[in-house]
Each structure stands twice: as C-alpha cells, then as structure tokens.
Specification:
three-stranded mixed sheet; seven-stranded mixed sheet; 23% helix; 31% strand; alpha/beta; 12 strands
C-alpha cells in the first residue's frame, strides 16, 4: 500500500511520519507523476487559498480530481476538509473544491488564529480513550448530506465525517502522537 501526501504547503511532513509509523509506504505529492500508483491520498491542513493556487500552479488539481472521481480514498484534515467538500460557504467565485464529500463548510469558522483550541473527542468508531483534537483556524461544517456519517462533533458541529472512502476532519490529528485516525483512514484503502 502506498499513500500519497499532498506536499505543497501545510503539515504534510507530520502526516508522512504518522503514516510511516503505521507501516505504510508514502510518497510526497508535488507534481502529477507522483500520483501514479498511489492507493490513497492525504490532503493536510494549511491555508486553503494558498493550497488551491499551488494545486493549479503545479497542475495537480485536474489529475487529483480525476482520481477522486474514480474512487481514490481521501483523508482531508482542516484545509483538506475544505478542499474535499462539495461547497465552500465563504469561498471566492470559482474556488476549487473536489466535491469528494457531501459537505458545505465555512473556512475559519471557529475564528482567527487566536481562537484556536483543543478538545477531547469520544469517537465510537475507535477503541480507547478520547482523541485530543487541535483546532487551528478550523472550518465549520454548515451542512452534511444524508450519506455523510458524522463520527464526532463539538458543540453540535460535525468535526469528523466520513462518506465511503473519504474521511475528513476540521482539526489536525497529525499534531498529536495519536495515529488512530490515520489507521481508520487506512481501513478504507483497498476496500
């Protein structure tokens, strides 16, 4: 199994470390030919507008979209959730989103950098204690489609969602040492 990690901006190196700790081969995705042969894709947190510009500059948007349309498993965290969503409530006209999961999200929905916070999330799909979730300029889910499974919420807002082989978080699981969400994603790869 080989998991690609979009490595244009954001906390991609921590995702690589987490996946390698799970015993998985990884490839850092920086150009279209890096997508060849991957079994799943991680889109990390970062700044979504910058990521979109880099995806377009490095001609990655179209080939990623094609792979997702073919069913490539995706794990999107924070900005990755924004890019994976069907709709971006406060996006600019024509803003790229892959439409990989039936969500509408609002960028920076929890506020600015100074409003960052952490929360413990009990997740039924995982064994063990709650997961410590780190929220940094995190998106808020404004709408979840009927096929979307909400796995965790904070004050009624979905923060961990799954639809088929797409898993998204509005927080940064890579900023802790807990690899259970990466392992949960890996269960959808190759199924």
């Amino acid at each position: 199994m080989v998991i690609g990690v979009l490595a244009l901006q954001g906390a991609f190196a921590r995702h690589v470390e987490m996946l390698q700790g799970c015993g998985v081969d990884t490839v850092e995705i920086r150009q279209p030919d890096h997508l060849v042969g991957i079994d799943g894709l991680v889109v990390p947190g970062g700044e979504s507008t910058t990521m979109v510009k880099l995806l377009e500059t490095f001609e990655l948007a179209k080939p990623i979209q094609e792979l997702l349309d073919e069913g490539l498993p995706l794990f999107g965290t924070c900005a990755g959730m924004i890019l994976a969503a069907e709709g971006i409530a406060d996006g600019y006209p024509g803003q790229l989103s892959f439409g990989a999961i039936d969500l509408d999200v609002r960028r920076n929905g929890y506020g600015r950098q100074v409003d960052s916070f952490e929360a413990d999330l009990a997740i039924d799909a995982l064994d063990g204690p709650p997961i410590r979730a780190v929220f940094i300029r995190a998106p808020v889910v404004e709408r979840a489609g009927a096929e979307v499974e909400v796995l965790a919420s904070v004050e009624g807002d979905p923060v961990l969602c799954r639809q088929g082989s797409v898993l998204v978080t509005s927080f940064h699981p890579e900023l802790t040492d807990d690899d259970r969400l990466h392992r949960l994603f890996l269960t959808s790869v190759g199924t």
